[in-house]
Amino acid sequence: MKILILNGPNLNLQGRRDTKVYGTTPFEEFFAALQGDYPMVEFAYFQSNIEGELIDKIQQADGVMDGVVLNAGGYTHTSVALRDAVAAVSVPVVEVHISSILAREEFRHTSLLASVVKGSIMGFGLDSYRLGVEALLMK
């Protein structure tokens, strides 16, 4: 099983940015632990603040990866292009968010990705990624 973890804008600041919402664990530390918890999974990881690079990675994952765990960050609420990329590929994509987007500012309540992903997981901190992996492993 090959799974791509794909992080969008500002997630490179995980562990330092708004720690009351996102926690203090750097993503790289969490990712290493995730790899250790799932030795049977071949993980790839990519983070970008650039919308087009995220779209490229989704397209490149099609037919190569068995699933994508996507935290699109702020692009969740704004990017029709990212939504269209997810809709265009056959690789299953699970949308994840560290915080509950429904418990935050109203502009965060709408996910443009929700209608084209396999499912959405939010509000469980970094564990949302683990739950996303579990969802893909159940397919």
Describe this structure in words.
This protein is an alpha/beta fold and 139 residues long. The protein has a single domain, classed as Dehydroquinase, class II (Rossmann fold). The chain is 33% helix and 19% strand. The chain contains 5 helices and 5 strands, in the order βααβαβαββα. The protein has a 5-stranded parallel sheet with strand order 2-1-3-4-5, with helices on both faces.
The tally of beta strands, per DSSP, is: 5
- Output the number of helix runs: 5
Topology pattern, helix = H, strand = E: EHHEHEHEEH
- Based on helices, strands and strand pairing, what is the structural class? alpha/beta
Describe the structure using short key phrases.
Rossmann fold; 33% helix
In short:
The chain is built from 5 helices and 5 strands, in the order E-H-H-E-H-E-H-E-E-H. The protein is an alpha/beta fold. Strands 2-1-3-4-5 form a 5-stranded parallel beta sheet, with helices on both faces.
Topology:
Layout: E1 2-7, H1 19-22, H2 27-37, E2 42-47, H3 51-61, E3 67-71, H4 80-88, E4 93-97, E5 119-122, H5 127-137
Helix pairs in contact: 3-4
